[in-house]
């Protein structure tokens, strides 16, 4: 019997089976653990961002922040949790408030955790649960030490094309007034003097938004994003300048968006296209010196929040610059030079080419800080989305994940 080896495979299989089951269970479980960990981290990030934003907007008070964050995590994880898991009470929330001048900022840390029941194969080798946890910290408003160079404040200047082509129709029908009446020549006939004449008839047609109307709505999207992040106009300063063949008197940089919103809503389309003066005005407005010889924008923000602002130019056109009086392209050259200088000073430039020809697209691609700062809007919906995205990115200066 000692020399009989029949049945060895069966014995080896019996010995190795628990190991094989455990290995299979571990492989399957590892994928589940990674997915569950990712879901938990996303819930922590979202809850921290939402809570910090709500505190900054005044939607909730600090006494309500813990419950708000816990409920948010529970809502985010509702579709992923196993029966009986109470993640709400297992979520730790820490809120720290700091003040700078008359402004308050909030740092919110959300740390959810729960025990994930492992699969039967893992249970067969002695495991029952796996503990998962995640943590996310978000800052709303400038939470750094006053006087530091960290940025939570924003200064933004818009350079907007109001040339004649901005009065042209887009392909988007006006939702509030979808049809319009128009007159046209009809019913031709020969009058008593032998001349061919026409009656005047009236018809109806689709009423499309014009480009300038689309611009006003798109700018409203941007301002709405900034207002949501800074409802008390403590961190954001905005200004704007419009141009056609010449630039027009700008709306100077000021707190909030009320002044620049009124300025944009009053724009009317006419004239040619020359962006050089407007871009120079945008740059000089963001870098002007005060009476003491210091950067005026930095000083304004320091006095109110103790912070140095992040500076942006938003440059939009629907056309190509006209040739100058000598038939040259000096308007493009001057615009590019201003863009180069602004970028060298750390100013971020967002550009939007709205149904623009190749020449206009090329100029805006050159001026954008990088490819992610350039938007090519071929229809009104693209323009609305571009301005909203720029507003969201600028607002992230005030509400951001720190780890």
UniProtKB/TrEMBL annotation:
Stretch list, region Disordered: 134-153
Domain VWFA: 155-390
Domain of life: Bacteria
Protein name as it appears in the record: Putative Flp pilus-assembly TadE/G-like
Stored Gene3D superfamilies: von Willebrand factor, type A domain (3.40.50.410)
InterPro entries, alphabetized: Tad_N (IPR028087), VWF_A (IPR002035), vWFA_dom_sf (IPR036465)
